[in-house]
Amino acid sequence: MNKEILKNINVLYVEDEKDVREFTSKTLGSIVNTIIVAQDGEEGLIKFKENSDINIILADINMPKMDGIKMCSEIRKINNKIPIIITSAHSDPHFLNCAINVKVSSFALKPINLYNLIENMIKSIEPIFLKLELENINNKLDKEESTKKIQQVLDSQYNIVLITSILNITNVNNKFLEFFGVNSIEEFLNKNTSLLSKFKEEKGFFSLKSLNNKDNWLNELLELKDLNRIIKIKNNLGKEKVFIINIDKYDQQNSNYILSFTDITEREDKLNILRYQNNYDQLTGLFNKEKFNQILIKEIKRNNRYKSPLSIIIFNIDDFNSFNKNFGHSLGDQVLKLISEIVINSVREHDSIVRWESKDFLVLLPQTNLDGAKIVAEKIRNSIKNLQIDQVSKKITASFGVTKLKEIDNEESIISRAREALYQAKNEGKNLVSQI
To answer: What's the pTM?
Structure first.
């Protein structure tokens, strides 16, 4: 690791647990220039305002007075670039989502692995110090000396780093050569049409497809937010790695850019878990209400534009509360999973299914009129009625409400009308499909 860089950095460390704070600050204090310690977010914010030379922030999430996320949000109003590493004892989706929104550089789960923490600190701080060092070299050394010194500096970096103009890559470090399994940048360019060709074209990642102007991709990259500068690349062994690109324009005269690729493969795993937790019901694997609302709003807008039919089905299991009381919640959960599978197998790939509430399911059917929606509802109803569970002697049934989108509808009114149809089916004897 490029530990030399640590000798020059000033760290703000915010942690409310005394034992953790004392041990970690003592260890870090021996390898960094200065460590400034605070015991809660409120004190951390004050100390940040008092010390203009802080280079990086380490902060716990859960703290009294002011939590780490709130503190970081306030700091971002003052400094939008400073690296922030968040520590937490658990992967709470809400807090992690908030952490992403305040542009954290990395996450460190407790108990803290100090080696990993130091590694993450180096990864986060390197691009900032690298730009300053290269600018200093250009200003003070002649061309021959600066070329040698620049290469030495690049090779000392922990991240994959390259220097490029709009047209050509001029320098790469050893990490770059090792990653792609080449001996020189010339060998790399002989094997590949461009660096961009190595970026995997996949939803959620920056690639050639993301660009509006391929001839000016560096300026376009500069304008993107951090989370839109995430790329996926295969190394020379065929293993996929995820990086976030830090880009800086450092040589104004020659329009040179520094690109630093920070490996966030582990962080991307956390983000994928977070996205899943935010979008899906944990029991059934179906969309949750929040995600479904987003889909419904888009589908209504699409319907208003193209005037194609849009229908909705809402249903729930008849007498499910008494079922749970008689057979237990564990068996009730099993029933919910089985019904989820029935619905998945009864609809098309582009239809959307949500576990709306504990016993309620909702199905959105684009390009489907009321008659078509009723056919789908009847198919699901019959499959549920025929469901066989060894531990359950009584039949499981469900009641359905079906409606279609009208010109005056919004996302609330169409669901409300579908629910009215559901109540109608319940009142008429249950195990029925009713439409309004």
So the answer is: 0.51
| Whole-angstrom distance, CA of residue 354 vs CA of residue 314 | 10
Cβ proximity of 46 and 24 under 8 Å: no
> Are 302 and 431 in a shared domain?
yes
Q: What is the pLDDT of residues 123-132, one digit of tens each?
A: 888 888 887 7
Residue 75 pLDDT exceeds 80: yes
Residue-wise pLDDT for 314-352, tens only, equals 999 999 988 888 888 888 888 998 999 999 989 988 899
- Same domain, yes or no: 386 and 318: yes
Cα(357)–Cα(205) distance, integer angstroms? 33
Edge-to-edge strands, sheet with 433-435 = 352-355, 360-366, 310-317, 398-404, 433-435
CB atoms within 10 A of CB 242: 21
CA atoms within 13 A on the CB side of 270: 19
In the block, tokens 């005269």 appear at 253
Query: CA–CA separation, 356 vs 257, rounded Å?
Result: 49
- Domain-located, residue 150: no
